[in-house]
User: Fold this.
Amino acid sequence: MKQLVLQLTGEGGALAGVPYHLVAALAMLVFGAIVVFVFVLPVAGVTSWLERRVWARIQSRVGPNRVGPQGFLQWLADGIKNMLKEDIIPTAADRVLFSIAPYLVVIGFVATFAVIPFSSTLVIADLNIGVLYITAVTGLVVVGVLMAGWASNNKWSLLGGIRSAAQIVSYEIPAGLSIFPIVLLTGTLSMQGIIQAQGWAPWHWFLFHSPFTFAAFFIFFVAALAEGNRTPFDLPEAESELVAGFCTEYSGMRYLLFFLAEWGNLYVIGAVVTTLFLGGWQIPHVTDNPVLLAVLQFGVFFLKSYFWVFIAMWVRATLPRVRVDQLMSLCWKYMVPIALVNLVGTAIWMTVVPARVDRLVQIAMTLAGVAVLVRFFLRVRFQLRRAKLRAVDYYYSPII
Amino acid sequence: MSLGGYDVEVQRPGGLATEEMTLNMGPQHPSTHGVLRFIVKADGEVMREAIPDVGYLHRSIEKIAEKVGYHGFMPYTDRVDYVAAMPCNQGWAMVSEKLAGIEVPRRAEYCRVIACELNRIASHLLSVGSMGMDIGAYTPFTHALREREYINDLLEDLCGARLTFNYMRIGGVAWDLPPEWVPKAVAFLDRFEPLIDEYNALISYNKIYVERLANVAVITAEEAIDYNLVGPNLRGSGVKFDVRKDLPYSVYPEFEFDVPIGSGEVGTVGDCFDRYMVRINEMKESCRILRQALAGVPEGSVLAKVPRKFKPPAGDAYVRVESARGDMGWYCVSDGSEYPHRVKIRTGSFTATSIIDKVSRGLMLADLIAVVASFDLVAPEIDR
Assistant:
């Protein structure tokens, strides 16, 4: 993008004479807008549809399949429906806070896309504090949620908001502590820098770098799920306990915005995990064509990050919800200490272990990871086969 | 995570004024299983008291009996407990037969047992499914309801209705088993029995699930008897009492089955998990009864000769049946006329609500949901 801006503002460019920084800022805004409207919103929408379909299959239902092929356009129908709905603000609510709370939540998640590196060139802003920036702006979500809970003037909303505040603030600590080992290894906070320090092959990923980074990966993923209010940590909007938690009083588009943020946030979790631990957009050298390269890198990055979205859906369909005290004890008694051990362990590892052993460990870890995956798939296959029971050959209900 | 319970001692720094919050849980709340209301006084997430407010679903069913007569009251009994309507049918039929001294044909008794046990499985499936949903796992619910659909289909074949059956009559049952129905029911059992183990693998021993239910709302055997808990709630506390076994009625003495009781396998005897597990095991026992009953249905008529103008002699009668929610008592006073003088129904859900306040003090708000689900409350049964 830098070259493009330089071309535009340089001698003979279309915008010759205009200050460079102004054009650069404008270019970033335009690119950001394109990313938000062409990528973020559709991805969040499609994720909502996919989640409902995946969920339905796991629950032996059908799921939305009416709007478009396989119900693919359901998210558009839902969006239009919600936009046309009346936006009710309760009389007792704090009107201003109530109105702006959903936007804060959405800003908190959309702003993260500014630093997500889709490919070696496709990134809005490669900040030198990229990772720190992500943890900072996702912190904005808690403000919005707490604001929504408080402004609704509803006790269930308030409980949901308070739960959310306690939860997000707590889980940011293990999440942050799990990023540190990677920062130690690369010596940079820039997302592109972290990806460039890894390779395309799994044994070059930080996931398999050492046992400590391996553990850090899982802690980060679980903590990110908790920050995103996903099952098994969906206490702030626990339907069976708090009606709908902090969004009980919301309706129409504002209600949808909370869920847009939740589904979009899933992709952000996947993208950050991919960047930090799974080698990001790294692909083997296949072409020199910059456009083709960008497309390939984008595809690899998207697949890797969307895989974790799928895992999150799967987890949501499988696990029950923990209780508040269990949530807190899990965070403070287990995850924070383990994350601290990871941090110190990585630091010691870097100074003590020589490079040759390092390589051996990486390959061994990769093999172990492959073994775990194979075992997992065998187990899934075994369960699926066992579950294939003969259906009773009579039924009237169309569901079965 | 520790498996044990937790001590909640809220420490306040001096001078910080706090107050308890009164929460209205219900009547419209996703997980109160019907129109049931709890007035919860909570200190943050910790409940100080949770008082059930019943009566939203009172429909004067007992009074209606005095106006519609013995035969006419049968459809109303479905509405006493719509999740398990067959035992209610049976209770009313049995109390009327006892008043009039009517002998029920053996085939009809078998039909009744088969219908009741199928209905018990359906009710327990709904109970354990919604338990999962209240804890936050949605998948077990749909899987449980899928199997319940098969039972509904079977019962629809049997009596034409899927929820409020109106199947039994004073002196027998309304319809004989349809042709080819018995093999269908056996096919269902063949499918369903392995699925119980699969259900356990899916959710029952899930770590989070166990943590949420074990050691929560422990009710000792003495407390359970003092508070008059019945059915799975009583047996969850380790008391081996089942009306089908201890005060046998119908043809239950002819069948072999066990009475599962809570064992405290993951926590203390009498916690939410035990009550849940008793229901799972009772489904297996119901399958056993069903297999024996389906194999041995005798020939004969299904309805004794009962006059249209049913006038039992003056007197009173009390029968107890084991409904899906436990010992269900039917008391009827007859003055010799066509209409009952007084009918009283004693239901398990009503007595279970009385202990909720006691066990839920000091628990968390999320636990109240688990407690309510573990008692398997059905709101219309509480109020009638």
